[in-house]
Automatic annotation (TrEMBL):
HAMAP family on file: DarP
Statement: the UniProt record of this protein carries the keyword Ubl conjugation: no
Biased composition (Acidic residues): 7-23
Region Disordered, annotated ranges: 1-23
Xref: Pfam families: DarP
Gene Ontology terms for molecular function: ribosome binding; rRNA binding
Gene Ontology CC entries for this record: cytosol
Protein name as catalogued: Dual-action ribosomal maturation protein DarP
Its job: Member of a network of 50S ribosomal subunit biogenesis factors which assembles along the 30S-50S interface, preventing incorrect 23S rRNA structures from forming. Promotes peptidyl transferase center (PTC) maturation.
Annotated SUPFAM superfamilies: PSPTO4464-like (SSF158710)
Length: 183
């Protein structure tokens, strides 16, 4: 029997007809090392966190125990423990851990920005007095105008007399309370 032109497909091996999904993805040795180093850096970040911050990150028991142990170890043992943590992290889904760590960092940055804003507002209150009071009342409608006036007047007197800035600190505390209750 002679072969028909369409029969040439029968001679092609099956593995060449399969989808490209079965292709082997080659990962270079350098890329594997970069990934391992990145996981070690992430492990170091986790080690630098306090107990309360670590409680907010979704870690399994083994990884948490390894991090707790690494926080207690010094010098060469710590380096080896970091290697172990990096190795343990390779077999876990790191996305939830990264998301939780980013949230923690972002919350810290937001808090620092809020503190700077409140400090600037406090400074304006002490310098300008009632002129800056309208901005505080606009930002925080629940603010007690009378209490703020007393604190501002006391802070101005303390500043003029070179006394410790007790009222100055109380203004900041009061503004922080207002910001926290509003949030």
């Amino acid at each position: 029997m002679t072969k028909q032109p369409d029969d040439w497909l029968d001679d092609v091996p099956d593995d060449e007809n399969e989808d490209e999904d079965d292709e082997i993805i080659w990962v270079s040795k350098s890329e594997i090392k970069r990934d391992a180093e990145e996981l070690k850096r992430l492990g170091m970040e986790l080690m630098e966190l306090g107990k309360n911050a670590l409680d907010k990150i979704p870690l399994d028991e083994d990884l948490r125990a390894a991090i707790d142990l690494a926080q207690k170890i010094k010098k060469e043992g710590r380096r080896r423990q970091v290697q172990l943590i990096g190795k343990m992290m390779r077999s876990r889904d790191m996305d939830p851990i990264r998301v939780a760590l980013d949230k923690l960092k972002n919350r810290h940055n937001q808090q620092v920005a809020l503190f700077h804003k409140l400090e600037a507002l406090r400074d304006r209150l002490v310098e300008e007095g009632d002129d800056a009071m309208s901005e505080v009342l606009r930002l925080y409608p629940d603010a007690d105008r009378q209490q703020l006036r007393v604190l501002i007047r006391n802070a101005q007197k303390e500043k003029a007399a070179n006394k410790p800035p007790k009222s100055y600190r109380q203004i900041f505390s009061y503004l922080r309370e207002l910001a926290e209750t509003q949030a």
